[in-house]
Design a protein that fits this description.
Largest sheet: 5 strands, antiparallel
Number of strands: 10
Oligomer: single chain
Distance between the termini: 33 Å
CATH architecture of the largest domain: Sandwich
Mean pLDDT: 87
Number of helices: 4
Protein backbone atom coordinates (compact mmCIF):
# COMPACT_ATOMS: atom_id res chain seq x y z
CA UNK A 1 0.00 0.00 0.00
CA UNK A 2 1.33 3.44 -0.87
CA UNK A 3 1.71 6.15 1.76
CA UNK A 4 -1.08 8.69 1.48
CA UNK A 5 0.25 12.23 0.90
CA UNK A 6 -2.69 14.12 2.48
CA UNK A 7 -5.64 13.13 4.68
CA UNK A 8 -8.62 12.20 2.52
CA UNK A 9 -10.82 15.18 3.46
CA UNK A 10 -7.93 17.58 2.85
CA UNK A 11 -7.25 16.04 -0.57
CA UNK A 12 -10.94 16.33 -1.49
CA UNK A 13 -10.91 20.04 -0.57
CA UNK A 14 -7.72 20.59 -2.57
CA UNK A 15 -9.23 18.67 -5.50
CA UNK A 16 -12.35 20.83 -5.71
CA UNK A 17 -10.33 24.04 -5.48
CA UNK A 18 -7.70 22.81 -7.97
CA UNK A 19 -10.41 21.84 -10.47
CA UNK A 20 -11.71 25.40 -10.36
CA UNK A 21 -8.19 26.87 -10.68
CA UNK A 22 -7.46 24.64 -13.67
CA UNK A 23 -10.75 25.70 -15.26
CA UNK A 24 -9.74 29.36 -14.87
CA UNK A 25 -6.42 28.60 -16.58
CA UNK A 26 -8.20 26.88 -19.49
CA UNK A 27 -10.58 29.83 -19.89
CA UNK A 28 -7.64 32.26 -19.92
CA UNK A 29 -5.87 30.19 -22.58
CA UNK A 30 -9.02 30.17 -24.71
CA UNK A 31 -9.37 33.93 -24.27
CA UNK A 32 -5.86 34.59 -25.47
CA UNK A 33 -5.89 31.94 -28.24
CA UNK A 34 -2.74 30.15 -27.26
CA UNK A 35 -0.93 28.04 -24.72
CA UNK A 36 -0.66 24.32 -24.28
CA UNK A 37 -2.73 23.65 -21.16
CA UNK A 38 -4.65 20.37 -21.03
CA UNK A 39 -8.28 21.48 -21.49
CA UNK A 40 -9.51 18.21 -19.92
CA UNK A 41 -7.56 18.71 -16.69
CA UNK A 42 -10.35 20.50 -14.75
CA UNK A 43 -12.78 17.64 -15.46
CA UNK A 44 -10.13 14.99 -14.68
CA UNK A 45 -9.42 16.61 -11.31
CA UNK A 46 -13.14 17.00 -10.57
CA UNK A 47 -13.93 13.37 -11.46
CA UNK A 48 -11.03 12.05 -9.36
CA UNK A 49 -12.16 14.22 -6.44
CA UNK A 50 -15.77 13.06 -6.64
CA UNK A 51 -14.67 9.42 -6.94
CA UNK A 52 -12.56 9.66 -3.78
CA UNK A 53 -15.41 11.43 -1.98
CA UNK A 54 -17.86 8.66 -2.94
CA UNK A 55 -15.45 5.87 -1.92
CA UNK A 56 -14.76 7.64 1.39
CA UNK A 57 -18.51 8.01 2.06
CA UNK A 58 -19.06 4.28 1.46
CA UNK A 59 -15.95 2.91 3.21
CA UNK A 60 -13.31 5.27 4.64
CA UNK A 61 -11.03 2.28 5.25
CA UNK A 62 -11.00 1.21 1.58
CA UNK A 63 -7.38 0.22 0.80
CA UNK A 64 -7.54 1.98 -2.60
CA UNK A 65 -8.04 5.45 -1.09
CA UNK A 66 -4.30 6.20 -0.57
CA UNK A 67 -3.49 5.43 -4.22
CA UNK A 68 -6.48 7.48 -5.39
CA UNK A 69 -5.52 10.42 -3.15
CA UNK A 70 -1.94 10.37 -4.41
CA UNK A 71 -3.18 10.26 -8.02
CA UNK A 72 -5.47 13.21 -7.35
CA UNK A 73 -2.61 15.19 -5.81
CA UNK A 74 -0.47 14.45 -8.88
CA UNK A 75 -3.27 15.74 -11.12
CA UNK A 76 -3.60 18.91 -9.03
CA UNK A 77 0.14 19.56 -9.41
CA UNK A 78 0.91 23.27 -9.42
CA UNK A 79 -2.53 24.13 -7.99
CA UNK A 80 -1.89 22.45 -4.62
CA UNK A 81 -0.07 25.45 -3.14
CA UNK A 82 -2.90 27.79 -4.18
CA UNK A 83 -5.49 25.33 -2.86
CA UNK A 84 -3.70 25.21 0.49
CA UNK A 85 -3.68 29.00 0.64
CA UNK A 86 -7.36 29.30 -0.32
CA UNK A 87 -8.57 26.59 2.07
CA UNK A 88 -6.50 27.70 5.07
CA UNK A 89 -5.46 25.33 7.81
CA UNK A 90 -8.18 25.97 10.40
CA UNK A 91 -10.96 27.23 8.22
CA UNK A 92 -11.40 30.47 6.35
CA UNK A 93 -13.21 33.60 7.45
CA UNK A 94 -16.22 34.38 5.29
CA UNK A 95 -15.78 38.12 4.64
CA UNK A 96 -19.56 38.61 4.31
CA UNK A 97 -20.36 37.16 7.75
CA UNK A 98 -17.07 37.28 9.65
CA UNK A 99 -17.62 33.62 10.65
CA UNK A 100 -15.15 30.76 10.32
CA UNK A 101 -16.21 28.70 7.31
CA UNK A 102 -15.11 25.86 5.13
CA UNK A 103 -15.09 26.04 1.37
CA UNK A 104 -17.37 23.65 -0.52
CA UNK A 105 -17.69 22.94 -4.20
CA UNK A 106 -20.92 23.78 -6.01
CA UNK A 107 -22.16 22.44 -9.32
CA UNK A 108 -25.25 23.20 -11.38
CA UNK A 109 -25.87 21.25 -14.58
CA UNK A 110 -28.80 21.91 -16.90
CA UNK A 111 -29.96 21.83 -20.51
CA UNK A 112 -32.02 24.67 -21.99
CA UNK A 113 -35.53 23.45 -22.82
CA UNK A 114 -35.23 20.26 -20.77
CA UNK A 115 -35.85 19.72 -17.08
CA UNK A 116 -35.81 22.83 -14.93
CA UNK A 117 -32.95 25.22 -15.70
CA UNK A 118 -32.08 27.99 -13.19
CA UNK A 119 -34.28 31.05 -12.83
CA UNK A 120 -34.03 34.05 -15.15
CA UNK A 121 -33.88 37.10 -12.84
CA UNK A 122 -35.86 39.18 -15.33
CA UNK A 123 -38.90 36.88 -15.47
CA UNK A 124 -38.61 34.78 -12.27
CA UNK A 125 -39.16 31.75 -14.54
CA UNK A 126 -36.62 29.16 -15.74
CA UNK A 127 -34.28 30.50 -18.43
CA UNK A 128 -35.55 29.66 -21.92
CA UNK A 129 -34.24 29.84 -25.49
CA UNK A 130 -33.16 33.40 -26.26
CA UNK A 131 -32.53 34.24 -22.60
CA UNK A 132 -29.23 35.74 -21.52
CA UNK A 133 -29.32 35.64 -17.69
CA UNK A 134 -29.72 33.04 -14.98
CA UNK A 135 -29.25 32.80 -11.22
CA UNK A 136 -26.83 30.41 -9.51
CA UNK A 137 -28.91 29.66 -6.38
CA UNK A 138 -26.17 29.34 -3.73
CA UNK A 139 -25.35 31.74 -0.90
CA UNK A 140 -21.88 33.14 -0.22
CA UNK A 141 -20.27 32.08 -3.51
CA UNK A 142 -16.59 33.06 -3.54
CA UNK A 143 -15.98 36.05 -5.74
CA UNK A 144 -14.44 35.05 -9.09
CA UNK A 145 -14.82 31.33 -8.33
CA UNK A 146 -17.51 30.44 -10.89
CA UNK A 147 -16.54 28.74 -14.12
CA UNK A 148 -18.90 27.71 -16.91
CA UNK A 149 -18.59 24.85 -19.39
CA UNK A 150 -21.00 25.47 -22.28
CA UNK A 151 -21.69 22.59 -24.67
CA UNK A 152 -18.51 20.87 -23.35
CA UNK A 153 -16.30 23.98 -23.89
CA UNK A 154 -15.01 26.12 -20.96
CA UNK A 155 -16.16 29.70 -21.53
CA UNK A 156 -13.95 32.76 -21.21
CA UNK A 157 -15.10 35.71 -19.12
CA UNK A 158 -16.14 39.02 -20.67
CA UNK A 159 -14.72 38.94 -24.19
CA UNK A 160 -16.52 40.21 -27.27
CA UNK A 161 -14.97 38.00 -29.95
CA UNK A 162 -16.67 34.75 -28.84
CA UNK A 163 -19.46 33.52 -26.60
CA UNK A 164 -18.61 34.53 -23.04
CA UNK A 165 -20.23 35.68 -19.82
CA UNK A 166 -20.02 38.14 -16.97
CA UNK A 167 -21.13 37.48 -13.42
CA UNK A 168 -22.41 39.52 -10.48
CA UNK A 169 -21.95 38.07 -6.98
CA UNK A 170 -24.14 38.85 -3.96
CA UNK A 171 -24.44 37.18 -0.54
CA UNK A 172 -27.63 35.42 -1.73
CA UNK A 173 -26.60 34.13 -5.17
CA UNK A 174 -24.74 34.99 -8.37
CA UNK A 175 -26.26 36.21 -11.64
CA UNK A 176 -24.66 35.06 -14.90
CA UNK A 177 -25.14 37.24 -18.00
CA UNK A 178 -24.28 35.65 -21.35
CA UNK A 179 -23.17 37.90 -24.21
CA UNK A 180 -25.64 36.15 -26.54
CA UNK A 181 -28.93 34.31 -26.14
CA UNK A 182 -29.01 30.63 -25.28
CA UNK A 183 -30.75 27.99 -27.41
CA UNK A 184 -32.78 24.87 -26.67
CA UNK A 185 -30.44 21.92 -26.18
CA UNK A 186 -27.53 24.02 -24.88
CA UNK A 187 -25.78 22.19 -22.03
CA UNK A 188 -24.36 24.16 -19.10
CA UNK A 189 -22.15 22.90 -16.29
CA UNK A 190 -21.56 25.65 -13.74
CA UNK A 191 -19.01 25.07 -10.99
CA UNK A 192 -17.71 27.26 -8.21
CA UNK A 193 -16.82 27.52 -4.56
CA UNK A 194 -19.01 28.50 -1.62
CA UNK A 195 -18.39 29.51 1.98
CA UNK A 196 -20.22 27.20 4.42
CA UNK A 197 -20.30 28.10 8.11
CA UNK A 198 -18.59 25.57 10.38
Amino acid sequence: MSNQIYPTNTAITYGYISSYLAQVDVAKQLSFNGGSINSKLPIQILMATKTIEEIDNIDPTDPNIPKCVNYLVSLCGKYIAQAQNISGSGGTVNPATGKISTIAAIEVQFTIGSGTPPIDPNTNNPIISGGTQFIIPYTYILNKSVGIVYNNVPLPINISTAISYTITYTADNAVVTMNQGVSNGDLFVVTGLQYVNI
